[in-house]
Amino acid sequence: MTDQSNQSELLEFFKALADANRLKIVGILARQSCTVEELASLLDLGESTTSHHLARLAKVGLVSARPDGHYYHYSLQTDTLQAMAQRVLSADALPKIAQEIDADAYDRKVLQNFTDEEGRITAFPAQDKKFQVILRYVAKAFEPGVRYTEKQVNEILLRFNKDTATLRRNLVGYRLMEREGGGGCYWLVDQKTEA
Amino acid sequence: MTDQSNQSELLEFFKALADANRLKIVGILARQSCTVEELASLLDLGESTTSHHLARLAKVGLVSARPDGHYYHYSLQTDTLQAMAQRVLSADALPKIAQEIDADAYDRKVLQNFTDEEGRITAFPAQDKKFQVILRYVAKAFEPGVRYTEKQVNEILLRFNKDTATLRRNLVGYRLMEREGGGGCYWLVDQKTEA
DNA sequence: TAATTATTTCTATATATATCGAATTGTATT
DNA sequence: AATACAATTCGATATATATAGAAATAATTA
Known about the structure:
Two copies of one chain form a homodimer. Helix content of chain A is about 55%, strand content about 10%. By secondary structure, the first copy, chain A, is mainly α. In chain A, the strands form two sheets. Chain A has a three-stranded antiparallel beta sheet with strand order 3-5-4. In chain A, β4 (about 175-180) and β5 form a beta hairpin. The first copy, chain A, is elongated. Chains A and B meet through α1, α2, α5 and α6 of A and α1, α2, α5 and α6 of B.
């Protein structure tokens, strides 16, 4: 769970293409751009279902929509497809995934050493790297996009360790969470947008 | 459902890679070959689960097993991965899928015209191409690999039309089914192994 | 503004499959 | 042979998601 960027991006790409109807959509759009209606009738699917599939393909950049009248013309982004294919071909794409797995395994081991069966933190690691693992673990208890009062934050942190102050301070210090002014408002930092 | 060879092969390939743990396995095997046990512990998964994933990857030729002692060494078939990537890049792979969809749509239309709501055949098309669509539709009522007596065959065909003789004769004539000697033994022909 | 049409979102359901634990198979060693 | 160990298969469960239908949204036309 350390750095999933490579992993999850590739995974989402493959998942997008791992459905018979979505693959068909890509095949059709390779020839001509279509409206949702056209696709639905070609595939013998409901329009809502077709729309859903298109949304999934769009999410990974495989298709794009161009509005025209009250139609949307969906078309294939061939460059995305090619870029992904190139990426899989590249020598270092797979080893990178392997590195991420090593990091995951490391995290698991640290977690095992510093938490009990109930997931509570038994001790704070002195080593900075391990301490960050613990912090990332704790951060997962918060929902992305939600704002918490300091009281709520403490309540959640208490499930992990009685020293909520240390946890709270370091979550902010290591920029896993952010705090409004001096006040009581906390939220998760989206790690993806961070360098 | 006319000629799914391109479709289904690509689909199975993407499905094989559309799982986080299988993608991780590929990543690990890109560096080193492993036993099931090793992979299971690296991924923090049960051995049976790991085995299942490896079987799926092997099915599309992405990994291969080499027996050694009582271990199996699984390794990545990088050439399969490259071949698939090349294929996606090739200009005609996607249009081919589109053709298959057209064929599917054609089949559906024929079926609609010559069957009723309950799936019974209302008339036999005069046109050869359409007649074959009907035959392929009927053939789906039989299980691959199972041997049927003539009586059983007739029983099944009766669900589609009272003229079981015509259906039976043409299923064999168009090589969708095969018959033992002059006798009462029928079975589906595996279309994949046919030219 | 009302009405029409295309698309999306929401809700519910059905199907596929990832997962585990137990039993089984297969291979090598004693 | 008998035993030990790795791997697979089987049975059951839980989760993800493909699907359809209804309601909501957006955009155009009357």
